Task: structure prediction
Amino acid sequence: MVKKGFSKSYFNLKRVEVIFFLFVFSFASPGIGSASANTGKSGLKTSSNNKKQVIILKSDDFIFSEEWKRYVKYIEDKDIKACLGVVGKELDNESLCEWIRLLSTKNNFEFWNHGLTHSCGEDYSEFKNTSYEYQLSHLQATQQLFKDKFGITLRAFNVPCMDSDENTTRALADVEDIKIWFFGRKGASQLCLDRNGNIEFPYGYPDYNKFVERYNKNRLGQYDHLALQVHPGFWRDETCWDEFLKIMDYLFQKEVVFMTASEYYQSITAVIRVTNSSNNGPGSLRAAIDQANNHSLENAEIFLPAGTY
Result:
C-alpha cells in the first residue's frame, strides 16, 4: 500500500535514500503511533527455531472492578503486556476514565476498540445484520471517544460476541486508524490475528488442563504468535484465577515474549520511505516498490513526501 503524508509520520528521519525498517522489539507508545497498514492477510506464520513465540493477551470488556484491578496488577507485577478491550458506552464511568489515563502512561497496556454498545442477540448484534452505516458510526464513535478523552488513537478492534458480517469488513476498511482485527474475517484490509488457542473453556472460565492439552495436541508452539482471549471481569471464583496463573506459568516455561497487538503488528511490518520525486533512481517510488518485492514483504507500507506524485 502506498501512503502520502511522509511529513506526518512519527519516524523523523532525514536521510535522502529509501529507508527500510523491520521492527522487532522497538515500538511507539501504545495507541499513539501511526502504524502502517498491511496486505490484509492473516498474521499466522510458522515460528523459526531461534525466535520466541509471541503471546498477545486479548483481554475483553475492560471495566472498573476488583477483578480487573487484580488482573492489571498481575500484568504490571510480571512486567508483561496485555491488550484491554473497551466498549465505548463504558466511558461514561469517570473512575474507568481516570484508570485509563493512568494506565496509558505505562508500557504494559494497549487499549482496543470493542464496539460502542456491545449489543448481542439471536437475530442481530452490534456488528451482524446491521447496516454498513450503523456499524461505521459505532466504530467511529468509540475511536473518537478515545481521542477526545485521552488523546489515544486505537489501532485494534474486535467485534462483541464474535458476531460480524460483510458490512463489518466494509466499515473497518473506512476506519484508517484501525490496523488490526482480532479474529477477523477473510479478505479484511487489516492484519487479522487468528484464534488458534483458548485459555477459557467455556467463555469466562480458564482451564489449565484443557489449555495444555490443546497446546500440545494442536502443536500451537509452532506458530510465531498466539492471540489468547480472556475475560478477567468474570473471574469471581478463585478457581478461575488459579487456573489462569497456572496457564501463565506454563507459558513462561516456554520462554514466550508478551506483546501488544500493535507491537506485534509493527514487528512484522516494513516501512519504506520515498524521498526522490523522480520516476527512477535511489529514493524513488520505483526503487521502493522493487525493494519491497525483492524482500518478498507481505506487510509493507510505502510513504511518499507530501505534495509529490
Summary: Helices lie at 66-78, 94-103, 132-150, 166-173, 208-217, 238-253, 261-267, 285-294.
